[in-house]
Amino acid sequence: MSTVTAYAATSATDPLAKTTITRREVGPHDVQFDIHFAGICHSDIHTVRGEWGGVRYPLVPGHEIAGVVTEIGPAVTKYKVGDRVGVGCFVDSCRECSSCKAGLQQYCIGSGMVGTYGSVGKDGQPTQGGYSGSIVVDENYVLRVPDALSLEAAAPLMCAGITTYSPLRHWNAGQGKRIAVVGLGGLGHMGVKLGVAMGAEVTVLSQSLKKMEDGLRLGASEYYATSDPATFKTLRNSFDVILNTVSANLDLSAYLSTLTVDGTLVELGMPEQPMVVPAPPLVSMRRHLSGSMIGGIPETQEMLDFCADNGIAPEIELIAPDYINEAYERVLASDVRYRFVIDTESLRGE
Ligand code: NAP
Ligand code: ZN
Ligand code: ZN
């Protein structure tokens, strides 16, 4: 076992504070790595604040993790000391079920995926995430960071990147497709970049026009404010696919009406409260309402390689760990351009 410095939440309301946690002994199939960077995902905030229920405090959030391997177990074959690696939202799953066998570990129907934090690991201990100096993970749940990607850019790809890449691929959002990304935050800005790189025509739907210049610079061809009711009139029956990345409740009926015949709204945001879905906008154009959760290990590696090959990286604001609480407030105020990434150097080797 090793002791590591980390930032933990101790309740739903107290600020996160510095603490120490232990990491398990490196097992035969385990990789230990020094965490260099950890992204702040809005899911960290939902979780810490108890919006999804069932939190066991203290909790160390962080599931957008990138760093360098420091130790490997004797049976490890995929990684060696010094390799640049990452970990996303899960660190284990049953490995036996049809989902796991298909590489869709995030949809494990056996025991369910083991979350990077807030779950129970195979050592029987609560899992603790990436706002910390190092981590021990089974090699089969570790990703390789391609040379062309910096570690700080790779970190947010582990969740924000794969969460938008996977539905874009699944719903074939390539050449000739018109897609909309709702909410220009951490997920949203990756959705725009990835959608454009796949050849789709991307429209941003944001609360205001404040980030319009950014949206167009990221590659969107159109940008609308959802606070303007004319937007929904203009865009009626337009999109093949909508990625809804908004962390709060929306009037889904207005957004559904912007889908064309057989179009699909993919819910990615996970607001605390249920949303109302009236039948008419779904029924009238044979529209689909769906959802998607992160992505499996093979697809996450494919996404990392795709980003490296296409020069795609998130836009990040690097912060020190003592800025985490302020960063949370800024994310909640939609004041993130476009992902906070914690430089965890001060948490290593203390
Ligand atoms: P984020 O950086 O905070 O981005 C969310 C964006 O939604 C904001 O930047 C804002 O964009 C818009 N927004 C926020 N509040 C709004 C409101 N009241 N009304 C309308 N728009 C609003 O968050 P994120 O990290 O991208 O995560 C987004 C959501 O996805 C969270 O609920 C998170 O838990 C969830 N998530 C899901 C998965 C998955 O696997 N499905 C993975 C990761 C995260 P504008 O300012 O442009 O309007
Ligand atoms: Zn996330
Ligand atoms: Zn499984």
Automatic annotation (TrEMBL):
Q: Which Pfam families match?
A: ADH_N, ADH_zinc_N
The answer to whether UniProt assigns keyword NAD to this entry is no
Alphabetic keyword roster:
Metal-binding, Oxidoreductase, Zinc
Tell me the InterPro entries matching this sequence: ADH-like_C, ADH-like_N, ADH_Zn_CS, CAD-like, ER, GroES-like_sf, NAD(P)-bd_dom_sf
Q: Which domain of life is it from?
A: Bacteria
EC assignment: the record states 1.1.1.2
Q: What does this protein do?
A: Prefers aldehydes over alcohols.
Instruction: Say which family it is in.
Output: Belongs to the zinc-containing alcohol dehydrogenase family.
Please identify the protein, giving its name as recorded. Answer: alcohol dehydrogenase (NADP(+))
Species of origin: Mycolicibacterium helvum
